[in-house]
Every structure is written in C-alpha cells, then in structure tokens.
Amino acid sequence: MASTLLLEAGVVLTVLAVAGALAWRMGQSVIPAYLLAGIAVGPHAPVIGDVSLTLVERSEFIDLFAELGVVFLLFFIGVEFSVAKLLAEPRRILTAGGVDLVVNVALGVILGLAFGLSLVEALFLAGIVYPSSSAVITKSLIDLGWIADPESEAILGVLVAEDVVMAVYLAVLAAVAIGGPLGSAVLPLAESLGFLLGFALLATVGSGLVERAFDTRSNELFLLRVVGFTALLAGFALTTGVSEAVAAFFVGAAISESDLKPRLESVIAPARDLFAAVFFFAIGLGADPGAVTSVVPLLAAGVGFAIVGKLATGYVGGRAYDLNPRRSLRMALAMVTRGEFSLVVAALAAATAGVSPAIPAFAVGYVLVMSILGTLLMGASDRIESVLGVAEPAT
Amino acid sequence: MTVYESEIPGVGRKFEVEVDDDGSRIVVLLHHDGRREVFRRAGPDADSEKLFDLDAQSARRLGSILTGTTFETVDVAELEVPLGEAIIEWWEVGDGSDLAGSTLGAADLRSATGVSVIAIQRGEETIANPEPDARIETGDVLVTLGTREEQAAFEDLV
C-alpha cells in the first residue's frame, strides 16, 4: 500500500482544494464543503451505475493529519483565547455566556434523553448541539462588514466564553470516554484533572518558558518548534488519558499574550489549515449517508432545538450587551452557526466505546445543515429585519 | 478624540476612532496578514459602511499623509498656493543660474520680474523675509510671491 500512499494524499488534498474553491465561490464556509468532499469520495461514496465514486479508504495518513487537525484547531483557539476579553466586561459576558450555556446544553441533554440515549450519550449530544462556530461566524462577520459594528463585540465575547466551557467539557468527556460510564470514571477523572492542572499551570505561570522555547528568528525553526512541541505535549497527554485537544488548547493559551502571536498567524496558521481540512474530510469519510438518514428524526429535532435555542439565547445575550433589538437579532442569527467544535466532539464520540454510532452520524448532518443555514441567515438579515419590523429607519 | 482598541480573535486588531461630536466613528480593522479595512459608522445605531481596503504599504503611505510628514518630500516645483491674483511658488536655483552668487538687492528681482522673494530655503534652514544683502547660492530654493505672468518671467531668470 505504501506505493499508493502519496497518490492517495494527492487525491485527498486535490479534492479538498476543489471543494474549498467551490465553497469560496458560493460564499459559504469551507467546513461543510470539506465534509461533503469526504462523503463524496470515501468508502460510503454513492455508486452510479456500476461505478463507485470511492477514491479513498481510511488510511494512516488521513488519521494522522486529522489528529493533528484537532490538535492545531484547539491550539489556535488557545492562542486566540483572551483572558483580558473574558474579564473586560464580566457582568455582560457572564449573563450572555451563561444563558447561552445553560439553555443550549439543557436542550441537548433533553433531546438525547427524549430519543432514548444514555446519559453519557446525551452529554456527547449536548456537546455537539451547544457550541457555535468561531471559525464560520468570524468569516461571515468580516464578509458582511458586521465586524465594525457593535454586535461583533458581543458575539465574539460569547464565543470566547464558549471556548472556556468547551475546554473544560472536552477534558471531562475525554476522561469519561477512557474511563467508561460516569460512575467508574472517578479515578481517571481525578487523574486527568491533575494533568489538566499541570497544563493550566504551564499556560499561566509557565507562559514565559513556553514563549522562550518558541522564540527564534528563523521562521523554519519556529514552525518546527511550535508544531513539534505542541504535538509532543498533546501526544503525551493522550497516552496519559488526557484530552490531546485540551492539552493543545493550554499550550496555545500559554502564548496568547505574547509577541509571537502575529508570527503564529502567518507561519503556523497555514499548517493548521492543512491539517484541519483533512480532519473535516476524515469526519466526512467516516460518515455513512445511510447512517445519517437513519437519524433523520433526531436530526430534525436537533436542528429545530438548535435554531430556537440559539435565536433565543443570542437575542437575550445581545440585550445583555445593551444592543438594540435589531443588533440583538443579528447576534441571534449569527449564533445559530455551528461548525468545528461540534465535529471535534463527534470525533471523540466516534472513538469512545459504547457510544452509539448514531451520534457522530448526527453530528455530520447537524454541522452540514447548521453551518450553511447560519451563513445564509446572516446573509439574509436585512430581509429578516424588515419582516420583523426592526430594520434601520431609512436615513 | 477617543480611540477604542480591541482584539478580534483569529483576525487581528480593531480600532474605533471618534471623529466628530455627532458620535460618528472611523473603524479600522488591522488583519494579521497586513490588510487594513476602513469603515465609517455614522452614529451609534447606524451600520458601518466600508470605505476602502489597503495593503500594508499603502496604509503606511496614507498614514504619513494624514500625519503631514509627506509634505516635506513633495516635489517643490509643483506646489502652488492660491493667494488672490498672486501665487506662491518654489524655485530651485540650478547650476549655471545667473542668480547664483548675487545678492537679492543686486539681482533687483522685483523690478526685473515683479515677484517678491519672501523666503530662501537653504537645506534645513529657512531665511524668512530676507534682507537685500542676502546672497543667493546654487541649490537654494527661493519662495516667491507674484502673479502667474510675473512667476513665468521669473522662471526664465532662474
């Protein structure tokens, strides 16, 4: 097989390039495009006549890149995590972020239990339903020019709050995933919390150390050091039963206040984009369209819950930030968008024994619908505003 | 004038500048890749309107125009300032000009051409309202006041 590995990598990346270009042209985020690309050429690809469109089977190359994708997605969420932003307006962010958390997680758990899932499975489902997509929303904010308007502050504030919640959530869930059902997970949970504490210390007290370790004039050495050190720590975390994603988050957070940030964006972000693209592709590969259709009732209910939940909490959040009804509505529309975090949770669910394969299948359908729908809703906000009678009076 | 700065995760930094008392703001978005987007927001409830996009180099140039520094490097031969009928011009005394070496009084420029020399720029130094015994040297920039015709007559001399 080794002889075809290079060819396979070429096929995967070329398919991703084409899918990305199409998404770009249609003004959509690349995430649903990468997912669809994975479905279209993977082992579950449609068969037309007698010809299967399957080009790619799951291989070590894809697994490795996908794993690195998760690590560097979370690494950058850590890098872009700003304690200052979180503490800038604690009252507003606690209100908006708190309502967002409580309502949407509760909806996810209720949904899971109502469909007869176990509590652990319902928690996975909640982790997929809850988080909005920083990546897709930020892109739309820039495309639509909302980034210069007051609602962007509120939206980005709540997204930062979600990042913290998800870091803790992933840590706990990974411990559960490795330790088994909730009851017997107490020991690994305590152990992994110990490791997490270590990583958190690294991110706070040790940030100068990490910064010095990374700091070098050569971009080439910088790339190697950051990717190497982050992968090393994340891999170490995984072998000790701690979420590699959370470890990467803390490594990123350690240098979030440093001068290295612009360089990370220019030198490391391209590596992240490459790995993350393969990660989304791999999720698509693993998704059997048959399995997705078998969860249609769950998916329909989930999409309904997700839209109503985020519209309501987004609007309340906007009001908590003293935005007028029109801008609060915009925030509500933006928060509907889901993406990368839901898929990270889906990957964890797929790797956990005893969790129904319906859950990752649900996540694929859910992210496909919600990422596209969110982008469309934001784009249509002018029309929605005038229908609801909150449009800006003509000047 | 108040400036608000905030960070946009994954994008860059955002600056909001209050430009008027009416609450309008200029919003500048600095992308990590060096691109700058500039918006104007007419009021607290208005939508921002994108004015233009700049790359890093153009942004620096525009910035230096706004701070006024660029005007020191503007080509002096092309500067004109309206002043009623009369205009002010800058003339560099070139090599081989008849004026080089003579004093203002001896050159008697006012009766020859009609223009008044209101200042002499010599390198970093500016001699404002020069005396008749001030000597003109090669490389000096003479700042002259006169009508277009008078300036044209003066141009022949320089």
Could you give the topology of this structure?
The complex is a heterodimer of chains A (395) and B (158).
Chain A: H1 2-25, H2 30-41, E1 47-48, E2 51-52, H3 60-79, H4 83-88, H5 90-114, H6 119-129, H7 134-144, H8 150-179, H9 186-204, H10 207-214, H11 219-239, H12 244-254, H13 261-286, H14 289-294, H15 296-320, H16 325-335, H17 340-350, H18 358-379, H19 381-388
Antiparallel strand pairs in A: 1-2
Chain B: E1 3-8, E2 12-18, E3 25-31, E4 36-41, E5 48-54, H1 56-67, E6 81-83, E7 86-92, H2 104-107, H3 109-113, E8 116-122, E9 125-128, E10 141-146, H4 148-157
Antiparallel strand pairs in B: 1-2, 2-3, 3-4, 4-5, 6-7, 7-10, 8-9, 8-10
Question: Quick summary of this structure?
Answer:
Helices cover about 80% and strands about 0% of the residues of chain A.
How many beta strands in the DSSP annotation of chain A?
A: 2
β-strand amount of chain B? 35-45%
> What distance separates the N and C termini of chain B?
47 Å
Number of structural units classed as domains of chain A: 1
List SSEs of chain B in N-to-C order: EEEEEHEEHHEEEH
Task: Note the total helix count of chain A.
Answer: 19
Q: Going across the major beta sheet of chain B, what is the strand order?
A: 1-2-3-4-5
Give a count of the beta strands of chain B, DSSP E runs of length 2 or more. Answer: 10
How many DSSP H or I helices of chain B? 4
Q: What spatial order of strands do you see in the largest sheet of chain A? A: 1-2
CATH superfamily of the largest domain in chain B: Regulator of K+ conductance, C-terminal domain
Radius of gyration of chain B, in angstroms, nearest whole number: 24 Å
Q: Which assembly state applies to the chains in this document?
A: heterodimer
